[in-house]
Give the backbone structure.
Amino acid sequence: MTPLLQVSDLNAWYGESHVLHGVNMTVAEGETVCILGRNGMGKTTTLRSIMGIVRKRTGRIDFAGQDVLAMPLHRTARAGLGFVPEERGIFATLTVEENLMLPPVTAPGGMSIAEIHELFPNLKERRNSPGTKLSGGEQQMLAMARILRTGARCLLLDEPTEGLAPVIIQAIGDVLRTLKARGMTVVLVEQNFRFASKVADRFYVMDHGVMTQEFPVGELDARMGMLHEKLGV
């Protein structure tokens, strides 16, 4: 499959702290790829660097045929990348509907409000509720829905199940499988290994700012011993 996203020799810094050390990663269009690793290994920094939130970087990030490394953040978004941070970023004083409509549509092909409500029924029921009244699961759904409306081709998801109840985690898994059926490309950072194993096509293992292993979901069982040792899962 032709890569939609290709990261080559990506280095990134926070001030003087060198966090990513030559990261290489390829994601095909329509794939769901999961980055595994312990806390502090550079997984979130990888997503933030791809999106352009981390500005001190070297290397190359090719997305949909163009190098986006030097682009300002708003142009990266218009190129088709969408980022859902772990902290979700819901505006507490705005209603669900106002939060949903806040990001601009950057490209054709985004979900309509009706499609979003079908995918996330809770958001339709809570559309007039302020952000402060939403549960953690509803906030996560809203954070994802905002990006899906913009027309993004690739969704960068940082720890979407963190702190959520099992029934909500299952619902988010259902959403990701639906998005995959629609052809959405997803790069997922996830500590919940059991959840990731049900939605991902391929895995990268990250250790101290470097991708140390890459394997398809079909090799998962054979790699369990290594994953238990490296990730404590």
